[in-house]
Amino acid sequence: MLIRSLALALAIPAAFSSVTSSCLSTGDEEPAAITDTDFGNLVTSLSEDGGYFWSNNFISNETSYLHVLDQLDARRVEDGVYVGVGPNQNFTYIAALEPQLAFIVDIRRQNMLEHLLFKLLMEDCQTRDAYLSRLVARPLTAPLARDATITDIVAAIESAAPDDMFYESQLAFVLGELETRPELGLTDRDRHDLELIYREFFRQGLEIKYDSWRSFFFPSLKEFILETDRHGEHRNWLASHETYGRVRQMQLENRIIPIVGDFAVGQAFRRLGRFVGSRGQAVTTFYVSNVEFYLFRQRKWSDFVDNVQRLPTSESSVFIRAYANLHRPHPEMVDDHITVSLVQSIHSFLRSARDGRYQNLWDVVTAESF
Fold first, then answer.
1. CB atoms inside a 10 Å sphere around CB 188
2. Which of 135, 206, 265, 309 is the one with CA 20 to 30 A from 351?
3. Domains defined along the chain, listed by start
4. Residue scoring higher pLDDT (327 or 203)
5. Coil vs helix vs strand at 288
6. Burial of 189 (0-12, 13-18, 19+ CB in 10 A)
7. pLDDT tens figures, 145-174
8. Is the dihedral of CA 307, 310, 366, 92 positive or negative?
């Protein structure tokens, strides 16, 4: 049970002590819904001040994210915890793995706000077409069938015109919902930033991309959704009503929790590890994207390894990582994909790190896979 003494032991704000066993099951118990109040307390008490990152990352910049699904298909981690970073690619992995809890940890406060936008729209939309229509503020003239193909849904959204009044009504809905959740501790600046995020989705629609000076390399939201796996199948989380429903149900139960934190320095990551360990659980999947590139460049690599060492994990725990083929193509590069997605055992990673085998990023991304 999470009681006040545990919250003090975790050395995080006292608000966290309100999270009780009534809303967070552990071990083999069925996942239980988390109250809105406890969700807000987790967001605020686990988070730290946001840090600087040089791009907005409105959506993923990875084209290969589906290529690891064959390796993940056999793994179901209902009693485990998923940790990820960044925006929308997390939902595909969450839908495939079905963890009990998911935490999205990102140094950018913008990412936490964007996930709140995703969450509120998802909670209010029972179908994929409704969600995608409202995300880019393109109203549909009629709803599509629940079993509509993802290509048909994308085509319908793409043919719909942007609508200022529709956008304003959706923005008012999101901001109104946030007003009912004061425990999130959002500021006027947060609301302003969330409005800017949503306006970019409205302004660019399905053509919105990862925001960087090299964005022409990266997929649009449309391209990202329509990516296929190694067998040519659409496997994005929006590709079926079932996978959308899995993620939406977790959102309705407040079991996807975005927090602000640095993978290497600060306290958020360690707070998260202590929280997961206090519940007798393990981080079974850790999606790190290409963050390790920046950790090496910023000389934070050893701090990151130390934080991973502190995480409660098991022999079956894995990393999912992405490597960009922009400079040195990876041996496992598929066709002309700009990224390679890889799976590696976390315990194997830690053994190699202790043995000093990782002197640079190339050593990491060419290490043994899971």
1. 7
2. 265
3. 4-112+210-365 (3.40.50)
4. 203
5. strand
6. exposed
7. 999 999 999 999 999 999 999 999 999 999
8. negative
